[in-house]
Amino acid sequence: MGKIKERKDAVQMILDLMADRSGMKQDVYARCRESFAMLKAELKSLADQLAPAIAGRDPRLKVEYGEQGDFSAKVVIAGDTVVFSMHTNVFRLDQSNSLWQGSYLQEDQHRGYFGVVNVYNFLSDSFRYDRQRDIGYLVARIFLNKEGHFFIQGKKQIGFLYNDLPDSILDRSKLREVLCSILLYVLDFDLLAPPYDQVSQVTVQEMKEVEAYSMISTGKRLGFRFQADTDEIT
């Protein structure tokens, strides 16, 4: 009889945990899907506003919006392509993060579970010339919880401006502000020539690829690593 009760208790614990934790993660995922759809609409609206305005000033410069399914969108802005990619899983904020010290998360630990949108910066020529070895850089991660509160880990002004989780809600006006901040950072993030010794040798195969596709591996900052950069705000 004791073993039967123990098995029932274990089953009840499983059911309780599923209803509590897994149900909450579904809430976070649903909120993130809704917000990402709003992000795509706002990104398209911004691209539609910028495209004719820049064409009037310099017809060589392009702004184009595109989508790759439900979980990815991109904007080509002059020589840069910025890709927004929503992760389909929900993540718990690392316990070492200082946000756990505040009352907002302490009052309800479920607020510490987030959907994540990663933002990557590529050179537009990397896609245009199919340079598959070219490097893209993570410039921001948008964390969004079940209540629509958000914060951003990012480069320079992006991380400084959007780190107030308790008081930041991701609505349309805030999304427009975030998108503009990201695009301003990307446009100000220049292409640097790689160190001479890093490109001083080339194989015959690589040379053939260069002649055919201009395929020497290129990125805005060769050797740049998001996690190690001193401008990152966590």
Provide an overview of this structure.
- It is built from six helices and seven strands.
- With 234 residues, the protein is α+β, with helices and mostly antiparallel strands.
- 41% of the residues lie in helices and 22% in strands.
- The protein starts with a helix and ends with a strand.
- The chain has a seven-stranded antiparallel beta sheet with strand order 1-2-3-4-5-6-7.
- The relative contact order is 0.12.
- The protein has one domain (2-233).
Radius of gyration: 22 Å
Q: What assembly state would you assign to the polypeptide chains in this entry?
A: single chain
Specify the structural class: alpha+beta
SS strand fraction: 15-25%
Tally of distinct domains: 1
Rough shape? Answer: globular
Mean pLDDT across the residues is 85
Number of strands: 7
- Major sheet summary line: 7 strands, antiparallel
